[in-house]
Amino acid sequence: MKPTLFVLAAGMGSRYGSLKQLDPLGPNGETIMDYSVYDAMRSGFGKVVFVIRESFAEDFKREVLSKFDKSIPCEVCYQDINKIPAGYQINAERTKPWGTNHAVLMAKDIIKEPFAVINADDFYGHESFEVLAKFLNSVENKSGEYCMIGYRITNTLSESGSVNRGICQMDNEGYLTGVVERIDIEDKGGVIICPDGQGGEITLDPNALVSMNMWGFTPDYFDYAERDFKEFLSEKGMELKSEHYIPTVVNNLIVNKTARCKVLDTPAKWFGVTYAEDRKQVVMKISELIRKGVYPQRLF
Q1: What b-and-e string marks burial along 68-100, b requiring 16 or more CB atoms within 10 Å of the CB?
Q2: Is residue 141 part of a domain?
Q3: Where in the sequence is the domain holding 281, given as residue range(s)?
Q4: pTM of the predicted model, to two decimals?
Q5: Is residue 177 part of a domain?
Q6: With helix as H, strand as E and coil as C, how does the chain read?
Q7: Residue 252 falls within a domain, yes or no?
Q8: Does residue 144 belong to any structural domain of this protein?
Q9: How confident is the model at residue 12 (pLDDT cuts 50, 70, 90)?
Q10: How do residues 100-115 score in pLDDT, each as one tens digit?
Q11: Based on the structure, what is the number of domains in the chain?
């Protein structure tokens, strides 16, 4: 069975200031999601599932799903803060979604095969989808075998401002053991630096691998994720802003030796619209990839 691509498209970009998921960036109005779907298709994925907010479902179906009608099967599920396991209470004043792990749980009854998880507004590059598809095909009918695409930090920086990244720590076999969060990372004269938290700076290895939220899971992840989410609700369900993230679940499974997560190196250059000023650069980069023949002038 071919793996499925699961796209996190339910969030709003507060720093970017608009609904990034539907922002036309390609020459024919293509969104970053369109390029991700195209890369997934040519890498061997068999289906795409999007998690969105129901409030913009009609716009999404009209502007996004209609493009893929004749190309690849697609399904939609909805993230809602009230979609939680039975028996748990939440703060009635809460309006903030529950985070990326909760978003993934919305597809529990849809996805039954190995699957990838990506952000809708990140451009991951075709090389990463090829690496990910190869891994997911190798773990069919297995459990507890996960992966994360690790981007070289130098390939993930923004030209418009500093970024925050989780730097991967691995064992000798390349399996994830932990992630060190670094904030305000930037390139200063060819040297990548970030604050050390004590008023100084740290120089970072440009080839250090970082997480850009591109994951691969076997379907048993849903059961573990739901169990972890229930524990989260028991502790923080009445809070207004706490969120439950994919890395939290993965880390717990690694610590408990329930699953392991292979870090897969990719030469791809990530880019996205972290800041509004990034948009022009993204348009130029997509245009250059088309000029080089990496993508056709029209995707669908």
Answers
A1: beeebebebbebeeeebeeeeebeeebeebbbb
A2: yes
A3: 4-149+211-245+261-291
A4: 0.93
A5: no
A6: CCCEEEEECCCCECCCCECHHHCCCCCCCCCHHHHHHHHHHHHCCCEEEEEECHHHHHHHHHHCHHHHCCCCCEEEEECCCCCCCCCCCCCCCCCCCCCHHHHHHCCCCCCCCCEEEEECCEECCHHHHHHHHHHHHHCCCCCCEEEEEEEEHHHCCCCCCCEEEEEEEECCCCEEEEEEEEEEEEEECCEEEEECCCCCEEECCCCCEEEEEEEEECCCHHHHHHHHHHHHHHHHCCCCCCCCCHHHHHHHHHHCCCCEEEEEEECCCCEECCCCCHHHHHHHHHHHHHHCCCCCCCCC
A7: no
A8: yes
A9: very low
A10: 999 999 999 999 999 9
A11: 1
**Average pLDDT for 21-46:** 93
> Tens digits of per-residue pLDDT, 126-171?
999 999 999 999 999 999 999 999 999 999 998 888 999 999 999 9
Phi, psi of 56 (to 5 degrees): -115, 30
Q: How is residue 161 written in tokens?
A: 């401002």
Distances (CA, A) of 253 to 24, 87, 203, 246, 289: 38, 24, 31, 11, 38
CA distances from 78 to 11, 18, 43, 237 (A): 11, 20, 26, 20
pLDDT range class, residue 57, cuts 50, 70, 90: confident
Q: Which residue has the tokens 């401002």?
A: 161
Q: Nearest-CA neighbor of 135 among 148, 123, 126?
A: 148
CATH code assigned at 23: 3.90.550.10
- The answer, yes or no, to whether residue 17 has pLDDT greater than 60, is no
Cα 49 to Cα 79: distance, rounded to the nearest angstrom:
13
